Amino acid sequence: MKKTYLTNKYISIKEIDELTNKYKKVLGKTFKNIITLKYFLFKYKYHYLKRKMIKQNNHFIANEMKNTTILNNINGYSLDHEQKRAVITDEDSYLIVAGAGSGKTLTMIGKIKYLIERLKVNPEHILCISFTNFTTESFKKALQKQNIRNVDVFTFHKLSLEIIKQNKKIIHIAPTNLLDCLIKNFWKNDLLKDFTLLKNFIENYVINSSVNLNNLCIYDEEEIIISNFLFFCKVKYSYKCIGYYKKAHFAFYLEDYNIYIKHFNLEKDSLDDIENIKELLHFTVLETYSQMFTENTIFDIIKQFLDANNVVIKNPDYQKIYEIFCYKGNKIENLSKTILTFINMFKSGNYPFSKFDEIEKQLMKNKTNQKYLIILEIIKRIYILYQTSLNQNHELDFNDMINLATTIINNNEVILKYKYIIIDEFQDTSYSRYKLIKTIKQQKECKLVAVGDDFQSIYRFTGCDVNMFINFTTFFPFSKILYLTNTYRNSMELITVAGSFIMKNKAQIQKKLTSKKSNPKPIKIYFYKDKQEITSLFKQIKEENVFVLGRNNSDINFFQNTSFMIQDDNIIYENKKIKFMSVHKSKGLESDAVVIVNLEDKTLGFPSKCEDDILISYLNNYKVYYPYDEERRLFYVALTRTKNNVYLFVPCKNKSLFVEEILKEHKNFIEFIN
User: Fold this and answer.
1) pLDDT single digits (tens) 594-613
2) What is the SS3 assignment for 37?
3) What is the pTM of this model?
4) Which residues in 72-103 are b (16+ Cβ under 10 Å) and which e?
């Protein structure tokens, strides 16, 4: 008999036919045809069963909460109502949205204990996946405290390696820094050996960048680009004030030719200002406007003007310009991060090589994208170098391992034993990891429990896609969403500040955490004129266990030439070791207090202004819904590592945008400590 699957029950077509025959005389006038009537009855029955099933499930969970005592002692803690519900729920797939400090690890251990002791699931049939080696080792130790053994706890990469080993394939794992080394070598050697590519890079990217190639004090980005072009042409010029009207106005003055080039940024210059400047000028003048940048005609217009006025243009020194570009600012470092992110996302998305051509065609639709085309070409060159190195040395990187493991399972070359998959930090899942889990789930019809917090998704640069978390029910249909909203780490006041701050990101799951802890002013701000004052700050910190967090690993250098000593990843203060780490490394950890440094408004400050290149948006269809959205999540992670206070060490001038925002909106929760 043909059957239709509805939630957890089968309804036979015969049953629907019987209902149809029973009611068709009564409802025949209402419905135009019998198919519509069948559909109506089918839909009615479906919703009836669904409501009944939800009611039965809720009744079952309520009874289990009353009668199951094993959840009253998980590593010395009794689970709260939400945690118990998350443990007892046994859907085919469900997501536990766990706020910072809400006890997600405890809940996961409780789930495993419940499966083994209550549902009698063989521990060998449970697979746990976490994001890092550190978190997997911590989770294993937590399970051992509950006397739970034989549960597989892997990272995605270790899981992939185990699958490949079961398939008896011999592989070599590439060094983790291989791609980074290839990128550095490209800038140092490969690019200089290819003059055509170097020339293209200088003409289409370097001159168009915000890196000021000359030593003139110019702050407007469009004027910096004009200055770069004149420098590129080896035209002698100065940048001088040409008159006052409400404010100073500056122009490029070519003294040898008595020529001015005055740029009018219509977003900044009023029409009155422009007319006043025109009256003051009695020289040959070229007026340029912002529109010329959007139309990508600025260089052609300047060159035509120079030619018309017999200005001598010399051949540029490409190598010298490149040396200046590399030396000034952090543009090469920023580009390297973009390239690293792009290739990681490209491989984690398992895109074919033809994707490069597809992106190129998209970019060519807009003539202002010329500078992105050259970066795409450079990325392609480095990608080929990387893949060639892997192939020649018979090596796989982590993305290759995951993709190979997925292929092996798809081909049924290994049969896995798992019935339950529990994934920690699911917000940090990439598309390739999702495909691996989906494939394992389909092969064994496993049940899936995913745990995480979209507020703490901070690994986009490795190919992770928070959309899989936010749109969980799209990737795993008929799944359920549960929430852990009680936090046991942070005070209610800190949660208020951090929650308001993070929910400015539009693409986040809206949720409100609660806490029974109170701390009227959990944010302590120390404004400094000299970084030596960090000693004064630490004299006021009463907590024993303190983390110092920086936006970048290199922020530990902040403590050089101070009264502190640096020893590995520790800062030595009065014979006491204080742990320094980047915010990325701090995720999942907690401390009595947290000190955040490098809160300055600069390129490598916090937020970092090394924003993702437009090229990144062509992978995984990622869109930025709010400025510095990933940086905002990173700052949220930094704020929520503390059990008590967060100490912000802030410069008096050029304060971080995030600090400015908190000062403006949450002054009631801030104490100024100097």
Assistant:
1) 999 999 988 788 888 765 56
2) helix
3) 0.79
4) eebeeeebbebbbbbbbbbbbbbbbbbbbbbb
